[in-house]
């Protein structure tokens, strides 16, 4: 790893007190919305996301005729950003629909849809749609990663079969030290760090190192990209353990309720 944690000096701690390879507090719940086919609530630091799933639902009417040749379900993603979710409040729109026409929001929707389209067993649901609705309540960095993690939990809650978890986190680079060209990687950036540092979002499939999502948000020298990616993949392994624990605890509660 780029840094030796055994000799990590206190002065090198980040503004929120974390070391370079520490995740923020990650809290998650599933089955939070009784009216949805699947749902979840997730916090990564102060970034908070609600996700609901509709489907798999058979396409009917004109839409069915247009997609008559489809042998796989189609994954669609809708993102609504609350007006109070962050300090970057754009003009236009209002309420939960704010951000729907934003370019970055559209890119996030396409990235999430593409990731799950290739991970879910969509061939089991021909002529159907699976709609992932994400509601952003608070933004403080790692927004795309939080959306991917929340969607994974909600899809598991909905019982949609997939090859494995998609888990995600961010990594960035510290500014080069004075007099040198070296820069150290950081894990799970908050909003302030994202504004100041180059960073990327990485998503992996399962507990391995197979990258399914990689979005670079700023310019980075090629030689430094490998270190950022390695730290991000290691962070994804930590995130997967946390999400897997959430799913297992929920499964245990459901099983106990059935038995009792």
From TrEMBL:
GO terms for molecular function: RNA binding. Coiled coil: none annotated. One of its GO terms (biological process) is nuclear mRNA surveillance. CDD domains: RNase_PH_RRP41 (cd11370). GO terms for cellular component: cytoplasmic exosome (RNase complex); nuclear exosome (RNase complex); nucleolus. It is found in: Cytoplasm; Nucleus, Nucleolus. Keywords: Cytoplasm, Exosome. Residues 22-161 form the Exoribonuclease phosphorolytic domain. Pfam families: RNase_PH (PF01138). InterPro entries: ExoRNase_PH_dom1, ExoRNase_PH_dom2_sf, PNPase/RNase_PH_dom_sf, Ribosomal_Su5_D2-typ_SF, RNase_PH. Component of the RNA exosome complex. Specifically part of the catalytically inactive RNA exosome core complex (Exo-9) which may associate with the catalytic subunits RRP6 and DIS3 in cytoplasmic- and nuclear-specific RNA exosome complex forms. Exo-9 is formed by a hexameric base ring of RNase PH domain-containing subunits and a cap ring consisting of CSL4, RRP4 and RRP40. Belongs to the RNase PH family. This is Ribosomal RNA-processing protein 41. It comes from Letharia lupina.
